[in-house]
Design brief:
Number of strands: 0
Helix content: over 70%
Order of helices and strands: HHH
Largest sheet: none
Low-confidence stretches: none
Radius of gyration: 16 Å
Shape: elongated
Number of helices: 3
Strand content: under 5%
Distance between the termini: 68 Å
Structural class: mainly alpha
C-alpha cells in the first residue's frame, strides 16, 4: 500500500493576516485608527501575495475579505465615535 503524500501546512503569513483581520474587526469601534492601519497592511499583503501567485490562495483570499470588512467597520466606528 503506497504511503499517503505528506500534508502541506498552511503559510504562517496567511494565517497571521487572517488573525490580524479578526483583531481589526474586534477593535474597529473605539480604536478605529488602529483597525484602519491593520486592515490596510493585511489587505496590501494579501493582495500582493495573491498577485504573485503563491500557495494558500484560500487563506489569502480570506485575509482580503477580512481586511475589507475591518476597513468598513473602522470607517463606521470612526463615524460613530466622531459624531457623538
Amino acid at each position: 500500500m503506497p504511503a499517503a503524500p505528506p500534508r502541506r501546512q498552511a503559510s504562517t503569513g496567511a494565517i497571521a493576516v487572517v488573525v490580524a483581520g479578526i483583531v481589526a474587526i474586534v477593535v474597529s469601534g473605539p480604536l478605529f485608527p488602529l483597525a484602519l492601519v491593520i486592515a490596510a497592511v493585511s489587505g496590501t499583503a494579501s493582495v500582493r501575495h495573491l498577485r504573485a501567485g503563491g500557495p494558500d490562495r484560500g487563506w489569502w483570499i480570506a485575509g482580503v475579505a477580512l481586511a475589507a470588512v475591518a476597513a468598513l467597520l473602522a470607517v463606521f466606528g470612526a463615524w460613530v465615535v466622531l459624531t457623538r
